[in-house]
Amino acid sequence: QKDSDYSKQQQQQQQHEIIHAVQERKSPLKSMILQSIKSMPRLFWLYSFVGMTMYASVVPFWFYGSAYLQRSRGLSLKSADALMVLPEGAIIILSTPVGILVDCFKLGFAAQQRALGVASICIALSYVLLLSGVLQSAMWGVISLGCSYAVANQLLWSAFPHACPEELGSLGAGIMACLINVGATLVPALIGAIRALVELPETADIFMLLLLASLALVAAVVSHVSVSRIIRAERISSGYEEVNEVAAFTNNEEEAEILTRNII
User: Fold this and answer.
1) Phi and psi for 206 in degrees, rounded to 5?
2) Which mean pLDDT values do the consecutive 10-residue runs of the chain (264 residues) have?
3) CA 80 vs CA 29, 130, 153: distances in Å
4) What does the buried/exposed string (b/e) look like for 58-94 if buried means 16 or more CB atoms within 10 Å of the residue's CB?
5) What is the C-alpha to C-alpha distance for residues 158 and 155, in angstroms, rounded to an integer?
6) Residue 152 in contact with residue 54, Cβ under 8 Å?
7) Proportion of the chain in helix, strand, coil states, percent, rounded to 5
8) What is the Cα–Cα distance from 127 to 215, expressed in whole angstroms?
């Protein structure tokens, strides 16, 4: 009886393997894509989530910011549109200096993510400044938003080589582009839907700024707590070595790669 049951199990396993092989042969591209996505480390997905929420906290303001400034601060269309240029203008001015500082101080992934978290908090505070009306001129709130976004944006992309395996760089870039635009698409749509339901535009404005500030804080929390914990877990023995330095503990490249992936 045992031999019979074992034989049946063997036959079922063989049939399953044959079916799986046939399916892979029919769709090799699909199988390759799924395998590549599964091979991305958890660290990359956390990093991507930070990027998605950070972009989702700023990009919608490009769409609705001008109208908000006209309603809340009484600015003309020309003045409001001029202020909306500041966030992108800040990227032009600050990106290169921030990149130079990252290289000069040789900031690792953990340090860059913590700094990105601080910049994300500053994004949230910029919305609080705009919402509270503490500053008489809306220009300072928008400048704060632009500078915070410029720093966060640069730190996000400078950390990409640390988060994404080199052999999967193109796939990682594609995933990042996808997730960033998911947030930047869904959040404006949600804000638009709320505006259609709410009678008072002032109420919709409050909801918008609170939502964007909350997304920025989510990015800050994930970058500071989740990613930092993983980085601390990745450090070896003395507690100072990053994952990229794991190879220094072994002369076997394959062993180093396995060790690194297991830690991540």
Assistant:
1) -60, -45
2) 59 62 56 77 91 97 94 93 92 96 92 94 96 87 96 96 90 94 95 93 95 97 78 54 45 47 47
3) 49, 13, 23
4) bbbbeebbbebbeebbebeeebbeebbebbeebbeeb
5) 5
6) yes
7) 85, 0, 15
8) 11
Q: Taking the model in full, what pTM does it have?
A: 0.78
| Residues in CB range of 84: below 8 A, 6 or more apart | 62, 65, 66, 69, 142
pLDDT of residue 31: 66
Please name the residues in contact with 41: beta carbons below 8 A apart, sequence gap of 6 or more. Answer: 163, 165, 261, 264
| Six-digit token string for 69 | 């400034």
Query: In this predicted structure, what is the pLDDT of residue 223?
Result: 92
User: 107 phi and psi, to 5 degrees?
Assistant: -70, 130
pLDDT at 209: 97
CB-CB contact of 184 with 166 (8 Å): no
